[in-house]
Amino acid sequence: MIIASNFKTNHTRQSTRIYMERVRQFAQETKSAQDILVFPPATALDTYTLPENIRVGVQNAYPVEKGSFTGEIGLEQIEEFGLRTILVGHSERRHILGESQELCAQKYDYFKAKGFEIVYCIGEPEEVRKAGIDAVLTYNLEQLEGIDLGYEKLIVAYEPVWAIGTGLSASVEQIDETLTKLRETIKAPLLYGGSVKPATTKEILEIENCDGVLVGTASWDVDNFCQMIEIADTL
Ligand code: PGA
Predict the structure, then answer these.
(1) Substitution candidate for ligand 1 out of 39, 156, 168, 214 with most atoms within 8 A of CB
(2) Left (φ > 0), alpha (ψ -120 to 50) or beta: where does 100 sit?
(3) Does pTM surpass 0.90?
(4) Distance, CA 44 to ligand 1 centroid (Å)?
(5) pLDDT tens figures, 7-43
(6) In whole angstroms, what is the distance from residue 159 CA to residue 94 CA?
(7) What are the residue boundaries of the structural domains of the chain, listed by start?
């Protein structure tokens, strides 16, 4: 399974180093078989010596090698650290930073061409969820516009906007129904994200079409994150 942590705007370079060392040790001691992904903020990117199943990625990047894009990072800055994993289309980038579907698809194409492992995020806002499962499906499928679903290094994270950072996770039934429907279109690994906590990790990972979790808030504490890895190891 894939257990991923999105630091968002949390942690420093120093605390990320401590965090990664703890995760590395934990996974080694427990011989964890999980794919463990961690997305620190851009200022904490660094060179890490990690086994193949533990990977550090970037939360965002502009689809260029380098250039004049103030405040952004490009391929050159990522490659300095040998990183090969990226998050694209996170809801906070779409809804707070105003990233369009077109830009998400451009980023996807660019980093796909560079051979990156891409965690591509989709998810509906609350009013769409209230309108029912058909509306939910239509909305989520629209966020796949321009995305090559046949790319072998694609992972899709279904993260309902109303469940992100709210403490209000989607129910097991809602996740199950949505992932089952998305599975008809998406053959890539499917993650769920949105207020996942150690206490809810088992029931979410047990959902048939769920291949892992993408965790924000609860994962910022390394002990919580290790606990989630441990739960995945028991399944
Ligand atoms: P959350 O964030 O776990 O804090 O809800 C999930 C995410 O945004 O990936």
Answers:
(1) 214
(2) beta
(3) yes
(4) 19
(5) 999 999 999 999 999 999 999 999 999 999 999 999 9
(6) 12
(7) 2-234
